[in-house]
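Predict fold of Nucleoside triphosphate pyrophosphohydrolase; 499 aa.
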Amino acid sequence: MLVGRLTVIGLGAGALDALPLGAYRRLLSSSAVYLRTDRHPVVDDLRKEGVLFQSFDAIYDQADDFDEVYTRIVEELLAATAKYGDVLYAVPGHPAVAEKTVRLLRERIPSAGHELVFGPGQSFLDDLFLRIDVDPVEGVLLLDATDLAAHQLNPRQHTVLLQMYNPMIANEVKIALAEIYGDEYEVLLAQSVGVAGQERVQRVPVYQLDRLETIDHLTTLYVPPSADAHLLRRQFHELRAIVSRLRGPDGCPWDQEQTHLSLRRYAIEEAYEVVHAIEQEDTDALVDELGDLLLQVALHAEIGAEDGEFTMDDIIGHLSEKLIRRHPHVFTEQAVLTSDEVISNWQTIKAEERRRKGTEHATFMDRVSRALPPFAQSVKLQRRAAEVGFDFTDVVQIYAKVDEELREFADAIGIDEREDEFGDVLFSLLNLARFYEIDPESALKRANLKFRARFDHMERVASEKNLEIHGMSLDLLEKLWQNAKENMRKAGNTLTDNE
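Predicted 3D structure, encoded as tokens:
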């Protein structure tokens, strides 16, 4: 059995003449009338018509944020409905447009046992579209300025930001818009739309939004679509369209020929380029290299979509779900963990995922991924073996093993046997690196840098003597090499990738 009835109507854009007749009659006949706010142009006219009401403006002045405002308004409306049985609630504009209290009422009314009824109303959007000369059939984004995030914006669309009540909200809007459109992009600030004699529409750059003293509760912002190619190409969906075009019938022959297999080496190469940019602390290079790495993801996604296997949305969705699943301490009520506890929990969750997929580790060594680069995989295999005591007891044994493997390599016959024995040499050397806690990748990188720097020195010295290193005798090359070693030793150079 219903306890009471709560009727919600709209006060329109601001003129009494534009107030729907049905809404006007209910305002005159209702004994319990509540307004979300009396800061609305039509309210003074309603007073003159003898309408008695109670507003919730005091809550706006007392609450810390809008969520608290709306929650308290809803609680008071439910209490009033229970008390009076029949309550009229009037909101600015239309009940279904930009009304958070209405959304909350829809959620709360069933459990309260009341009936929720909607009456007429006119949205100011009707007048706004006339003023800015936009037909909404072209596609319009309607967004809440009080809760705006940059990722919601689409520069190809007409965008209307509602509820930009004050300069503080305008500041947050400015930051979000500047991230997508830039500081100088021009937008339209519309104020008191639908209120005769008070309407004002002005064009301003984004950076000025929070400097305008005229912003109030009747302010709306219109962001026109952009035709700036540079701006549009910053959007992720534009990248997907470009890659699709490259792979399409009129695209690039090279891109059209690529497959998942043919692109394998580029993923590794681009990942190394990213790491190099990070080590160089070169921000511009990092942006460029991350783009190249992202291109590999986009290409694989496009190939997957063409083959009917998967899409970019599948990749993003799978990643998002995995991140949420593996971070329960962030996305659920689980207590915040220490860093060590996070790692342990991560491993437990991964093990459960493998169990569900039926891909549990069949052997002790299966915990070491076969997809790892060879050096990293070797070290992890050795450490895994050491966990059960299968390891050298001292470094002397490792040196002996290195000597043994070198002799076996020297005695090897044929390319296959030599490759096999050379692998054993490397594996034993990596055991030595593990014992001394040396990162083999870093060590080899230093050796590469040293060789590069010395050879560059040889070339400079030869050039200073009007000599070409091409065709130079080995004896002379060796003298230049030793000279480079000695000069660099005296200089005490610290090698970097820039040398």
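The two ends are 84 Å apart (CA to CA).
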